[in-house]
Amino acid sequence: MTSEVVSSELDELYRKTVLDIGIPPRPAILDQLGQELRSAEPDFRRISDYVSRDVGLAAGLVKIANSPYFGFRLRARTVLQALNLLGLDVASKALAGIALRSEFSGRPSLERFWDASEKIAEYSGMLVGLLGQQQGVHADDAYTFGLFRDCGVPVLMRKFPQYREILGLANAEPLRRFTEIEEEHLPTNHALVGCMLAQSWSLPEEICQAIRHHHDFILLSHPGGNLPAASARLVALSQLAEHFHQRKSGRSQGHEWAKLAPACLAILQLQPEQLDELQQALSHSLQQHA
Question: Which of 70, 103, 136 is the C-terminal boundary of a domain?
């Protein structure tokens, strides 16, 4: 039996396990947005009506449109204004992120997790502005990936009471892949679960593949292989964003940057000695948008 067949069978086994765990269904608002995006003349007012039926989605979209990350001169006061400022493609990705957090609301223990995800998403998008758009990766792609990168974590935390302890073990592992530690204790890992969620929510495939492989420093070290170049760049941007966030906050210092840094810096064509200057530029950009 070839290694490719074994790998395919293992993937199928993992997918069946993930389905048993229970992936949150795609929110209806995303289906409605998708229909409008595919139409020749999208109706912004009809979309605004859809979104406005959910107070949490409406407030979240207006908040994002007014966030320092986008830095719009005009401020949105209504959902319709937010849609016009963001555009439908960016708005649909933003609504997916809002819906994701809403799916796991009511768990105070996850607030720090969501706050960190939002910071990583924001930094990732800004790094695109500082480093330039390459491999077809735009700022809103990097932002969306930052929000969804670790979305498998709350799914597994809801399913497995012991998952918080498993995360501690994985974070403390200095050499092996993060997901290997998860698989020693569970029938799956958060990267695969997150990929399945992103696919079921119809996120772009390059984002889904980046979620699937964001801890795979071996695959990332061999560009041009099974991982699309856009996916590899998304991973590299988010890992660097997380590294900068951890340096600034002093929190959650694990071993992931040490394991992933060589591959990520190569993908981004950066040298280690350039990071301090880049972080200063990022901080300056954040201050300008504040």
Answer: 103
Percentage of residues in the chain having pLDDT higher than 90: 68
The residues, any chain, with a CB within 8 Å of residue 155's CB and separated by 6 or more, are: 21, 22, 23, 24, 190, 193, 194, 197
Q: What is the dihedral of CA 34, 38, 44, 45, to 10 degrees?
A: -80
Look at residue 180 and tell me if it is in a domain.
Answer: yes
Residue 124 pLDDT greater than 60, yes or no: yes
The total number of structural domains in the chain stands at: 2
What are the φ and ψ backbone dihedral angles of 164, each rounded to 5 degrees?
Answer: -60, -40
Q: DSSP letter at 2?
A: -
In three-state secondary structure terms, 282 is helix
Instruction: Judge whether 15 lies within some domain.
Output: no
- The C-alpha atoms of residue 196 and residue 185 are separated, in whole angstroms, by 20
The model's pTM is 0.90
In residues, how long is the chain? 290
Instruction: List the one residue out of 254, 261, 235 whose CA is nearest residue 174.
Output: 254
Q: What's the angle, vertex CA 103, arms to CA 80 and CA 81, rounded to 5?
A: 10
End-to-end CA distance of the chain: 57
What does the pLDDT look like over 17-56, one tens digit per residue?
556 777 888 888 888 888 888 888 889 999 999 999 999 9
CA distance 26 to 143: 20
pLDDT of residue 288: 75
Chain segment 79-98, per-residue pLDDT in tens: 999 999 999 889 999 999 99
Range of the domain at 212: 109-290
Within-domain flag for 11: no
Sign of the C-alpha dihedral computed for residues 233, 235, 238 and 243 taken in this order: negative
